[in-house]
Design goal:
Mean pLDDT of chain B: 92
Structural class of chain B: alpha/beta
Largest sheet of chain B: 5 strands, parallel
Strand order of the largest sheet of chain B: 2-3-4-1-5
Distance between the termini of chain A: 22 Å
Oligomer: heterodimer
Number of strands of chain A: 6
Helix content of chain A: 40-55%
Distance between the termini of chain B: 35 Å
Largest interface: A-B, 19 and 21 residues
Number of helices of chain A: 9
Shape of chain A: globular
Strand order of the largest sheet of chain A: 4-1-5-6
CATH topology of the largest domain in chain B: Rossmann fold
Mean pLDDT of chain A: 94
Radius of gyration of chain B: 24 Å
Strand content of chain B: 5-15%
Number of helices of chain B: 17
Low-confidence stretches of chain B: none
Number of strands of chain B: 5
Order of helices and strands of chain B: HHEHEHHHHHHHEHEHHEHHHH
Chain lengths: ~210, ~375
């Protein structure tokens, strides 16, 4: 059975720009999961189609519309007002993906939904507290996708898994002039944390 | 009497919050264990011609860069010692080129030119070639000798050869077959240049010490670029057999050595010959650090001005334990001394400290 994933624009970009054996991690994930998203993320993916995004991920059919309420109604219930499409800093893509996830679980009664996003600002900002209220929704970043692909033996060794973690770090790292001791510490901690998790997978499954 | 003198100070000992190579008062305080270990590495390199790769690691502002500046400055008078300070290249995609040019820039082209010129004059070009060929290659040994030419036009061309490369016509004119192109070329050439400052048994010249700061920036490299740069470090280290000391400064705020191994990679890690840890200060270390710096800066060493021990202690106690690093201590005490100067205060006591704290906390909220 395939995983049900609701994926965000930035994660699509990171995963489609990280490759193993000339195939992007997004394609590997697509082999193992049903990837869907909100209408807003579909617009964002089209806006960013020049960022090495494969054609399949821009397919209109991957767009999901909520059923219990309309997306506007959901936004009003959650935030008191509707969000403006393509407006910077509104996080409409992440919010709508979250609402889609809620709808999938509690209206369509899907067993589980994995909400994939690398947008820390949204997770710690507008989605803060909301995600905790829906414990069935599992939040992944691109790093968890690598763990999953390694546990599924699609990534064949822990060295390659660690290398792919480093690729994501490199891809998401700020420009030289925006780096700080805090960002360096953050990425060192990420590498350390996921190295330990890769080791755990290796211990259990290899 | 100026404001500093009123405080019984010749200078503000905490002025350099971050170390500066140009500072006139690079004074070592506390961290005796670290100092002893670095001194030992220097001594082994200078007296025993050893080859070492030393890893210095510890928290931000813990004194690693200061150590580099301090030791470079304090050993600057040794004529047969060439010391180089550089930072880990920021852009992984250009790391080898940046590393090469940083070394050439630090030594300076003029100094390299004069060194080779003097070697040719002392030993003759043939003998220098014989020394260089096994360390670099015939082609690059020839190029290195040309850097020491007495002909200004050739020297100018060789300057361009190092930095931007030459046209085929210019290379032909100099009798050289190729430019410095690949990473392997860079290492071969750099090894040849460094051997002009090290020599061998037949031509003993001196020792080379390289400090590479901010190695933690490797975290930002893609695996492809990391492998390239790590290979460069490894090959350079392996290409020189003696009188070569490399310090890698690595900032790790928290965590263990295994994290550094993860970032440096097994190849570099396995070549590390000594690890020096810059530990977080305890309150006692911090008090000793402040007392030593203040004592050195005092005009009248017997007076308790500018600040008594109890007040110093109070400020250190007020700082979070995670902030007890030389940089954070410098930051706090520098601000306190400047506050005293601005308010025309002759002695910093607990009342002054309390007033400064109110202001400092408001400014740093």
């Amino acid at each position: 059975m395939k995983l049900n994933c609701i994926i965000d624009t930035c994660s699509c970009i990171y995963l489609s720009n990280t490759e193993y054996r000339q195939k992007s991690l997004l394609k590997y994930l697509n082999d193992k999961a049903s990837l869907n998203y909100s209408g807003e993320v579909h617009l964002e993916l089209r806006d960013h189609s020049d960022k090495n995004l494969p054609v399949f991920i821009q397919n209109n059919k991957l767009r999901i519309i909520p059923n219990k309420f309309s997306i506007n109604d959901y936004e009003k219930r959650m935030l008191g007002s509707t969000l403006v499409s393509r407006k910077k800093k509104e996080n409409k893509g992440e919010v709508d993906n979250f609402l889609i996830s809620v709808d999938q679980i509690h209206y369509f009664k899907k067993n589980s939904v994995i909400f994939i996003t690398d947008d820390e600002k949204a997770i710690n900002g507008v989605l803060n507290n909301w995600l905790d209220s829906f414990p069935v929704i599992k939040v992944w970043t691109s790093y968890e996708v690598i763990l999953f692909l390694y546990a599924e033996s699609i990534i064949p060794s822990k060295d390659i898994a660690l290398e792919l973690i480093k690729y994501i770090i490199n891809f998401t790292a700020p420009e030289t002039n925006l780096r700080s001791p805090e960002t360096t510490t953050k990425f060192i901690n990420i590498l350390n944390k996921y190295n330990k998790r890769i080791e755990n997978i290796s211990k259990l499954l290899n | 009497m100026n404001s500093l003198q009123k405080l019984n100070l010749n200078y503000n000992p905490f002025r350099d919050i971050t170390p500066s190579m140009e500072s006139n008062t690079l004074l070592w305080a506390e961290m005796e264990e670290v100092k002893t270990k670095i001194e030992k590495s220097y001594t082994e390199s200078i007296k025993n011609n050893s080859k070492q790769l030393v890893l210095n690691w510890g928290p931000y502002g813990g004194g690693k860069t200061f150590s580099a500046y301090y030791f470079i400055k304090n050993n600057n008078n040794l004529s047969d010692l060439t010391q180089i300070y550089l930072r880990c290249p920021k852009d992984g995609s250009k790391s080898t080129d940046e590393f090469f040019k940083s070394i050439i820039d630090y030594i300076s082209f003029d100094k390299i030119h004069l060194q080779i010129k003097s070697l040719i004059s002392e030993y003759g070009e043939q003998k220098l070639m014989e020394m260089l060929i096994p360390k670099t290659s015939h082609e690059y040994a020839k190029a290195i000798c040309l850097i020491g030419s007495s002909n200004d036009d050739i020297v100018e061309l060789m300057n361009r050869f190092l930095y931007v490369g030459l046209t085929k016509t210019e290379l032909k004119k100099l009798g050289l077959a190729k430019d410095i192109q690949s990473d392997t070329d860079v290492i071969k050439f750099l090894s040849g240049i460094l051997h002009c400052f090290i020599g061998d048994n037949n031509i003993p010249i001196g020792k080379v010490i390289i400090w590479i700061d901010e190695m933690e920036d490797l975290i930002y490299y893609s695996p492809k670029h990391y492998k390239g740069f790590s290979q460069v470090l490894r090959d350079l280290f392996d290409s020189i057999s003696s009188s070569f000391l490399v310090f890698l400064n690595f900032t790790l705020a928290e965590g263990e050595e295994s994290t550094i191994e993860l970032i440096l990679g097994g190849a570099v890690w396995s070549r590390v010959t000594r690890k020096i840890r810059y530990k977080q200060f305890s309150n006692t270390n911090a008090l000793e650090y402040c007392s030593q710096l203040i004592q050195h800066a005092k005009i009248d060493k017997n007076k308790k001005q500018p600040i008594d021990e109890e007040t110093t202690h109070l400020l250190i106690n007020h700082m979070m334990i995670s902030n007890l690093t030389p940089r954070e201590i410098n930051k706090h005490f520098n601000s306190l001394i400047n506050y005293a100067i601005e308010n025309n205060i002759n002695e910093i006591n607990q009342d002054v400290l309390a007033n400064w704290m109110k202001e400092y906390e408001e400014d740093n909220l």
